[in-house]
C-alpha cells in the first residue's frame, strides 16, 4: 500500500514539488518556497493528507540558503506520512503560512517563528508563544550566544 501511494504522489507532485525521495520510510519532497502552497493544496485536497503534524526549521549556518523549513503531514486514508522541505535565506527567512489549509498550523508556526525567526506570510498572529514579549533573538539559531542575558521585563498580572 505504501509503495502505491508513494508512486501516485511522485507522479502527481513531481511537476510542482520536484522529484520525491524516500528517507527513513517517509516520502520527502523539496518544493521551492513559491511551490509550497500548490503542493500542500494537492496533498490535502487530492490525496487525503488531512492531518498537519508539525513544522520546524533547521539552521544550516554554513550553507546558503541558511534555513530549511520542514513540514510533516499524515493521511488517515492511506496511513502514511509525507515530509516537505524548502530552503529560505537568512536575509529574509519567510515562507507562506499553511493556516488557510490547517488551522493548527497557526500555533506551530508561532513556535517556529519564536525559535528561528522564520516569518510565515499570512499568519496574522506571530506573537511569541514560548518566549516572553521582549525576548531578544531566536534561541535555536546556531549563532545565538548561549550566555546572552535577556532584559528584565515587568511582570504583568
What would you note in describing this structure?
The relative contact order is 0.14. This protein has helices at 2-17, 36-47, 105-116, and strands spanning 21-23, 26-29, 51-59, 67-75, 80-88, 94-96, 119-121. The chain is elongated and about 55 Å long. It is of the alpha/beta class. The model has no long low-confidence stretch (mean pLDDT 93). Helix 1 packs antiparallel against helix 2 (36-47). Helices cover 25% and strands 25% of the residues. The longest helix is centred in the first third of the chain and has 16 residues, at 2-17. It is built from 3 helices and 7 strands; from the N terminus they run αββαββββαβ.
Characteristics of this structure?
157 residues; alpha/beta; Beta Polymerase, domain 2
Structural class: alpha/beta
Assess the beta-strand content as a share of residues. 25-35%
Can you count the helices? 3
Task: Please tally the β strands and state the result.
Answer: 7
How confident is the prediction overall: mean pLDDT? Answer: 93
Q: Would you identify the CATH H-level superfamily of the domain at 2-96?
A: NADH:ubiquinone oxidoreductase Nqo5 subunit
Name of the level-1 CATH class of the domain at 2-96: Alpha Beta
